[in-house]
Amino acid sequence: MDDPADLELSLRRRDATHYAVDLVFSQPSSEADVRPLGQHLVSVTFDVARLLELALDPRAYGRALWAILFADPVLASALAQCRAAAQSQGLPLRLRLSITADAPELHTLRWETLRDPQNDQPLALSEQLMLTRALGSADWQPVTLRAKRDLRALAVIAAPTGLDLFRLAPIDAAGEQQLALVGLSDIPTTVLAAPGQASLPTIISQLRDGYDILYLLAHGALADGEPWLFLDDGQGQVARVPGADLVARLADLSTRPRLILLSSCQSAGDSSRDALAALGPRMSAAGIPAVIAMHGQLSLETNAVFAPAFFRELRRDGRIDRALAAARQSIAGRPDWWMPALFTRLRSGRIWYEPGFEAEDFKKWPALLGSIARGKCTPILGPGLLDSLTGSTRELARHLAARHHFPLAPRARDDLPQVAQYLAVQQDADFLRDELTQTIRAALAVRADAPLPDGTLDVQLAQIGARRRAEDAGEPYRVLASLPLPIFLSANPDRLLSDALREAGKQPQAQICPWNRHSELSQAPTGMPTPEQPLVYHLFGRLDDPESLVLTEDDYFRYLIGVTRNEDLLPKVVGSALVNTALLFLGFRLEDWNFRVLFQSVMNMAGAELRRRYTHVAVQIDPQEGAMLNPQAAREFLKSYFGPTAALNYQTNISIYWGSAEDFLRELAAQAERQQRGI
Fold first, then answer.
1. Dist. CA 597–CA 602, nearest whole Å
2. Burial class (CB in 10 A: 0-12, 13-18, 19+), 388
3. Which residues, including other chains, have CB under 8 Å from residue 278's CB and lie 6 or more apart?
4. Quick one: three-class SS letters along 104-139?
5. Which of 105, 378, 117 is nearest to 225 (CA)?
6. For the segment 437-464, what is each residue's pLDDT rounded down to a tens digit?
């Protein structure tokens, strides 16, 4: 299914009664934004009293709200133009209602009732003109996509004893659990529904294991402007929990759910309260990428139809806004159909991706498998292979930036070479290395399955890596070590691959690129690499040789200058492998600085014309939300840059596999098995 065109309609306060309106339109195939209002200033005043009179009639309310919002004919015409542009491309249109922080009272309006005057149908029921509420967040944590098969869900059904004391209806825990499991279906789901399980401490403890979806069914209410949830006290009795406590505990998690479906009464606020004090918007503002919350008292009967329908639709394509519109259609005949409200900071609207090559892009599995079988393939390993142990380089950069008050642009906080450069200049290189070591060790402790062993960071990584390889036959380093290849290049500072090769019965030889002439291992004698005695060549240094590490922007510049001006820095067997074998780039984000430096150093080597003989692959996770203004356009750019552009400039056409290194290696193993079976 095609990604939709995007139309952001922003509302910001001008004065006590007027709000300024602006539009920004973009299409998935274009990197350029269009401002269809141009220099025209649009101002709107909401007749709240009139809308309150219509509160019991969603149809009349929606018509009146549309008439108020689009009273200016220029704005109405601009919307029509954007719709026509999307329709001409055969694309749905996502209308993102962006309400700025200075106008929180606008969240009390029932935007989901807006009716399209073209057909007098609610926008909230349309899959062609989809309405979402866009909220900003002060959270810097990027939103990464997960492969569909790796999704995990946590369903919490709070049905404690004592709800009648608050004049609340009883909840059928067993029945609601069954509905949740039917809806989530093939998504592995943990359920907390038994007496004593739906307590706040238990919910948070479970979420620390890492879940993509949280489905929370509980009674909720607003009291004195504050949201409350009626959860379990851990003993099966009702506990009235401040919503602020749940939000604070969620914000404190190192890995948060990507989507929360909050089926509780008044969880999105009601028409007489400040909606930003309600639970759904608070969760979104605290960093949850997408929250669906109820704008009023959704009945349990309506939720019994809505929730399974939403999860069923979400499994189709991972697009939250489309799934919500389709699920609302299933309850369109009920008076509370409009109450589910989506608050999100996702531009793409997706929470999962399907790993793989795009169908038309890659039909050369046999050629790639043949190169591997002949030993004519060279994997080049990037930092993404360490993500499950230490977190991404972007996460490490943000931790360092926050701790040391990094002063440059917000986007630079994600760039580890820039943050490292700042620390090296402000302090010195030894301080930088010590701080980075501490940050990695802290991240490792959070993700480790057991207490960290004693020793250096290199030793700790090695021991935890060994345990993971022993427990998982699909662990990436274990899979790589099984390949009959003579040379592996690594941009990582760990020794995990060498250890995995030894476990596979091989005798690896380790060397470090002498880019700064300081490495003790750079001149270590080696024999001719073979699959039984493979060479592991560390391009950017190793942890056990701190002076060899390439960390700062200056280090990367010196590395690039050194290897391009003096090809003797690389052993001849490495240089030959880079031009006369199939290249596999694994664990890189192709838009990152460290990959660009590596790519240029490899592509500019003499003999590049030989690369045309081979099939090359780069494995790239889909562009992160927040890191890219237009993820689909970014994907198209990367396909062009590493495909036709690379072929023209470097005699190397690189096919991009969208997914993680783990995804690719699983697919590689599956393709090899099919080939052996003659399928």
1. 9
2. middle
3. 222, 227, 243, 266, 267, 268, 269, 270, 293
4. HHHHHCCHHHCEECCCCEEHHHCCCEEEEEECCCCC
5. 105
6. 999 999 898 887 678 888 999 999 999 9
